[in-house]
């Protein structure tokens, strides 16, 4: 059975060898994420080239995703780590580097004087809690946690909205790299408003970047501007790590479901991320709660589920992907949500109308217990395949598109299996094209014996008029 929910895996020191990359793809990875918070630009460049080379050798479309660092706050201190006791008062600011005082600064120390007395400060994804203590012109932190705090860990100030630039210097190098290697997706950290996305699109255009832009929802302000952000982005990531620090952690599942539903309605792909199989960083087996987390994301109808430290630095990267793959496949078969009732489109949108007709035909076949093996979609831009994906059918969508760029852009779309396809020169898809496409599916052993499929294509192929024909084959 084919997995419909896409898996994104983060490349790191434990997963960057050619052999491991191959095995990760074989285990179910569709997109590789390159986290620009870690490693050098040259390191990422080498690994992106490696992934592209291996994907080409394997004949499998694999997406590449650069996750820009953005204006992230991280701990900056003289030592690799410090032991912190509950009730202890720590120095907070650049003065920790004077005479090696106990405490830490941050990557944007200019904001420290603007903090208010009593304001909460959280470190390491909320594992450490502090309160700001003002003493004259100096700022200190009163620890509310006991533990070992390590250098370079993340730091959050819930509710604060500082005027940071949307891109930092390192991000511009990331854009240059994205253009050089034809990266498929760029994730933007700490998006606050749609103007952040406009700024990044403008800068990306300067670098001739064609990648799809993903807005990471991880701040309270982003939630307040959610609808406009979704409209402005190509896709959205539910970044539950920082989001669970910025808002009360018990609210995260509610917002996850809300964001996914809004993205489906708007026709934007959505990624559910962070700590999905966190315990497998160290242990060979997941917890029951982690399996439930993956199941819930599948029930929510997310396009993608993402692994971070599990595949970047964990002890069991391959097994982690295998667990996620098996879990997704099992629960995809159990989902019974009719998303069609939420989807709206203009009567002037011929492609959307054809997609709705095709999905309606599929549902009628299912109701009468007739088997549909899948959708076969011929598309110049990939839009029709995305349109069908939006309905979350329980069968694969085989998308035949003219370029590798379009093919890889579909690697994040639920249920879409893209192929680069050389079309005939005529202005319509011929029976010969359909036969050739179905032969590709058989030759690739995707379907052992092709039964009934729903074929969608345009009658004015090559003229950009969108899909206009649905037929049963």
From TrEMBL:
- What is the uppermost EC class here? transferase
What Gene Ontology molecular-function terms does this entry list?
Answer: ATP binding; kinase activity; magnesium ion binding; potassium ion binding; pyruvate kinase activity
**Locate the Pyruvate kinase C-terminal domain: which residues?**
368-473
Q: What is its EC number?
A: 2.7.1.40
Q: Which reaction does it catalyse?
A: pyruvate + ATP = phosphoenolpyruvate + ADP + H(+)
- Give the record's pathway: Carbohydrate degradation; glycolysis; pyruvate from D-glyceraldehyde 3-phosphate: step 5/5
Per UniProt, the keywords (alphabetical) are:
ATP-binding, Glycolysis, Kinase, Magnesium, Metal-binding, Nucleotide-binding, Pyruvate, Transferase
Residue ranges occupied by any Pyruvate kinase barrel domain in the UniProt entry: 3-321
Similarity comment: Belongs to the pyruvate kinase family.
State the PANTHER family in the record: PYRUVATE KINASE
The name of this protein is Pyruvate kinase
The organism of origin for this protein: Candidatus Roizmanbacteria bacterium RIFCSPHIGHO2_12_FULL_33_9
